[in-house]
Amino acid sequence: MEHNILEIDHLHVVFPSSKGETSPVNDVSLRVPAGKTVGIVGESGCGKSMTARAVMGLIHAPGRITEGEIRLCGRDLRKLSEKEYCSLRGSEVSMIFQEPMTSLNPVMKAGHQVEEVLRLHTDIPESELKQRVIDIFRAVGITEPEKRYNCYPHELSGGLRQRVIIAMAMICRPRLMIADEPTTALDVTVQAQILRLMKDLVSDDTGLLVISHDLGVIAKLCDYVYVMYAGRIVEESDIFTLFDDPQHPYTKGLMDAVGSLRRDAEVLSTIPGVVPSLAHLPAGCSFCLRCENGSDRCEKELPGLIQTGPGHKVRCHLMKEAGQ
Ligand SMILES: Nc1ncnc2c1ncn2[C@@H]1O[C@H](COP(=O)(O)OP(=O)(O)OP(=O)(O)O)[C@@H](O)[C@H]1O
Ligand SMILES: [Mg+2]
Predict the structure, then answer these.
(1) What is the pLDDT at residue 118?
(2) Which atom number of ligand 1 is nearest to the Cα of residue 213?
(3) Does a structural domain hold residue 44?
(4) 97 in a structural domain
(5) Residue 131: pLDDT above 90?
(6) Which one of 58, 96, 131, 256 is CB 3.0 to 4.6 Å from 53, fit for a cystine?
């Protein structure tokens, strides 16, 4: 039977601002089933990283989680102390961060950095640590692993550094890996290899959560996808249905941007306007200001996430519930 590695229910993260409180994560619920790769896609600033940070226990003051539940293999993460979280990170859940360079210590040999993770989370004897690291380097496709073990990060190419980071994230075989835009700094060929590698690392009792602003990347990797806009999930579906029948106007815009050669922040030139500031969201649908079909109702009344088909949900007043 299918079980979930990660379950998030009605998660709210708020930050104080001069205009009162803003909600970069606003009533987000999502699932990562065992053996599956799940994506979160959306434009810059929509709350993707913040959702991941909440799972990692890395929302720092003045930001805070005000509501919701986060469960990893059934365990309530919001009840963990900082000490318990420290032992969880790297062993049961690990995250590959957006800026790969800042994830490695520049003055420490690559092999030693990965060894540190083992030392922290396992009682593997000192004499076996190096071999474990060499083995994992080989598993993530690092050629000449003995040689790379002794390299400092600046002596490695971007692709190799990314592989070292992946080795670090997976050496303790975590149940959940979160990859936050793991590839933006890499050229397209290396990017494709790294993504393939990560996908191959998902086994029957682990899950992978991939975060990207690029629906093309998500499409290649994920079984299921959540589309986020201004802190909220606006559509969720299995990947085939989403491409077959995108329903939210925002998803359709993202879809038009797939295949576009532009990989910069303007990738969504197909949707006019910009994401509204979180401090100035309309009472209703956050997308209505950019939506061609937005009405008075859209501006005033927040649409719920309604089911439009099996496993397909959309937050839009223009949609009809399945069977209606
Ligand atoms: N320390 C902070 N204080 C207040 N607001 C913050 C803070 N950090 C982030 N935010 C806001 O939270 C929102 C979500 O940010 P987040 O980093 O999750 O976006 P993202 O979807 O990961 O974007 P990107 O694609 O650029 O990485 C943004 O609007 C951002 O301005
Ligand atoms: Mg981010």
Answers:
(1) 94
(2) 25
(3) yes
(4) no
(5) yes
(6) 58
Question: To test the ligand 1 pocket, which listed residue (22, 212, 227, 280) has its Cβ within 8 A of the most ligand atoms?
Answer: 22
CA 116 to chain centre: 25
Q: Whose CA is nearest to atom 27 of ligand 1?
A: 44
Query: Are residues 199 and 247 located together in one domain of the fold?
Result: yes
- pLDDT tens per residue across span 61-96: 999 999 999 999 999 999 999 999 999 998 999 998
Domain count of the fold of the chain: 2
How high is the pLDDT of residue 259? 56
- The answer to whether residues 76 and 120 belong to one domain is no
Which of these, 285, 288, 291, lies nearest to 271 by C-alpha position?
291
59 and 124 inside one domain: no
Range of the domain at 179: 4-92+172-258
Q: Please tell me the pTM assigned to this model.
A: 0.91
Question: What is the residue with the minimal CA distance to atom 28 of ligand 1?
Answer: 45
For residue 107, the one-letter residue type is V
Which atom of ligand 1 sits closest to the CA of residue 211? 22
- Edge-to-edge strand ranges of the sheet holding 306-309: 93-96, 176-180, 207-212, 37-41, 224-229, 232-238, 312-314, 306-309
Query: What CA–CA distance (Å, rounded) separates 142 from 123?
Result: 25
Q: 229 near 46, Cβ under 8 Å?
A: yes
User: Same domain for 142 and 252?
Assistant: no
Choosing from 50, 51, 56, 178 the residue with most ligand 1 atoms within 8 A of its CB, the one to mutate for a pocket test is 50
Say yes or no: 77 and 190 in one domain: yes
Does any domain span residue 51?
A: yes
pLDDT in tens, 23-49: 999 999 999 999 999 999 998 889 999
- Kindly give the number of the ligand 1 atom that is closest to the alpha carbon of 60: 1
Share of the chain above pLDDT 90, in %: 63
